[in-house]
Amino acid sequence: CEDSHISLELRTNKPEGLVFYVGPTNSDAFKQLGVQDFMSLELKDGYPVLLVDFGSGTVRVEQRHTKLSDGEIHRIDIIWNKSTIDMQVDKCNLPTCMSVTAPQPPNEFLNVNGPLQVGGTHMKLAAVAEGMNWSHKPHDEGFSGCIKNLTFNGKLYNLGMPSLSKNADLGCNQGMAVAVTFGIDTSFLVAILICLAILLILLLAVVVHRKKTDDLYKDTDDIRENIINYEDEGGGEGDMTGYDLNVLRLMYDDPLNEKQMPNNTHLIQRPGPDDVPDICGFLDGKKQSVDNDPETNPFDDVRHYAYEGDGNTTGSLSSLASGTDEGDLNFDYLSNFGPRFRKLADMYGEDPSDEEDDNFHNAASESWC
User: Fold this and answer.
1) Which residues constitute the domain of residue 201?
2) What is the value of pTM for the model shown?
């Protein structure tokens, strides 16, 4: 009984819960025998809290270095003797993860005769604590998670075969699920809504602007308000029904302006859009205008133009005797053609006289086509 050692491993996601309790199960033991010794280990805000009472006062040992409610496996070692009570987490020998205190004198030993209850108790600890002289009281809330490898002074407890169990499952293979609430800050939500509203306004502005631009180009480019791609087959045929014929109609002259216009006989009034044109009258009017026009030549007279070879005594080119030596050809007429034919006249014709030379010099300015 010099040194006692309890060790265990646990895993949980909840910050509150009673890991184990050993001590009186009712207040009769204190009333009859005056025994109030107990030991309990619990989680408070995720940190381990050890309560020990040797019968002369309750001490509290708390470790605030490592939080155990993170879903990972943690080891807890509890060692006590006459003068000290020590609690270690995850075999850490540093002062930050070790908590040591002394028991309340004058008692030096833990005197308990009750069962070891793991994960909770079958009775209400609040009712038991009312009849006890405990300065620190353990909580009734049960532990939710996994507890394994529970040893006392090196001896392993068989937690798979308890004498009494409730809401306990064998082994630690089952998964633990924690309900998580997705919280959104109010300011963050307001910022998201403002951004969405701005994007919506910008989108509407772009749509309205593009619509106005399309309407403007539509009015200037196409007066018929229909655009057809004539590269497609049948595009022109489909456009025939939508074409506005009023665009091609000529404006009817105002009768009031007829008095101001000069009375020219060659001007013809345009018929109204609903009048049926008189073709015969139109042609007769055109004919009279042309016949009465003094500046127009009478192109309808008959003219006779001589055909090639007409009036020539030679029947064909083969009948010409230009290639024979019979007789001399007369080229005297070349001198009458002007200075352009002077060279030919000198070669084939007679020598011109001085009088003819003067005529040639006087006719130097004559041009021929």
Assistant:
1) 182-217
2) 0.46
